[in-house]
Every structure is written in structure tokens, then in C-alpha cells.
Design brief:
Radius of gyration: 20 Å
GO molecular function: disulfide oxidoreductase activity
Structural class: alpha/beta
Family: Belongs to the thioredoxin family. DsbE subfamily.
Strand order of the largest sheet: 5-4-3-6-7
Largest sheet: 5 strands, mixed
CATH architecture: 3-Layer(aba) Sandwich
Organism: Neisseria zalophi
InterPro entries: Periplasmic_diS_OxRdtase_DsbE (IPR004799), Redoxin (IPR013740), Thioredoxin-like_sf (IPR036249), Thioredoxin_CS (IPR017937), Thioredoxin_domain (IPR013766), Thioredoxin_ResA/DsbE_sf (IPR050553)
Distance between the termini: 67 Å
Subcellular location: Cell envelope
Number of helices: 6
Length: 178
Amino acid sequence: MKKALRFWPLAILIILLAVFFLGLQKDPRKLPSNLIGKPMPAFNLPDLHDANRSITPNQYQGKVWLLNVWASWCVACRQEHDMLLALSKNQSASLIGLNYKDNNVAAQQWLVDMGGNPYQYSAVDQTGITGIDLGIYGVPETFIIDKNGKIAYRYTGALNPEDYQNKLLPLIEKLENE
């Protein structure tokens, strides 16, 4: 009996190592979202550049659009900003920003310092409630919303040209043709 018990710690260590190595094989960008295929959470938020203008998902009903969650304090948002600027110039789908838990003045200055504003509008989510409703893990995150107002796709992390061309653009084109 004592000989059999002697191998339990080794067996447990092997099992833990196997679980650890299986976890390393997973793509960290593929965070699950229970919202795929479900309606965009309702919100009514002020625009970053005009507090008298309200932004709601209903404004984009019947259109395919992208919601990019960003903040001036976000390092990864700097990485994707040039990509978003280029995207805004030649993209048919509207690009809407969700400025997450940020200071309005800092956010406006950040857009100037970064070379421009890629967003058609940028909603201000200072409390983070809309981000919670979206299940935000961190910024940046980008959502594709279909013509029916349902979330079709969620991209976590800084958007790059390769993933945009290979993952997002084909889906956007498919949704626009439906």
C-alpha cells in the first residue's frame, strides 16, 4: 500500500503539467462571449465631442457597423490607432468608438496627438457600465454589429491589418450582402 501512495504526487504532477501545456496551446484572443448572436446591449451615451448629442445602437439599425472600445490610457490602443485611421478612410461600415473609463479632455487630446479621429462618433462610457454590459475584458476590443443590431463578432486586443483583412473584412462583407 505504501508503494502505491508513493507515486500519487508524481501522477498529480503529470496531470497538472498536461493541463498547463494544453492551456498554452489555446489562442488568448479567443475569449468567449455569450453575446455573439444576441442584440447589442442598449445604451444611450453622450458623444465625446458634443455632449448634447446622444449615441445609441438604434441609430445604426439596418447597417453593419463596428464598435471599437478604446481609452487614452490604453497602450495597445496606440498600436491599432493608425490601422483605425486607415480603416475609417476606406471602410463602408461605420466605425463607432466607445471611450471606456476615460477623462474627456484627455481622450480628445489623445486623438489629436495620435494624428486624428477615426471614429464617426465616440460614445463616452465614463462609469464603465456599457463596457460591463458588453463583457469587456480590457481595451481595445472591437465588435462587429449586423444589420439587425446583433453582435456578430468580437475581436480582443489591438486590431492589426492582417486580422482585419482575414477575419473581420470577410465577415463585414458577408453581413452587408445579407
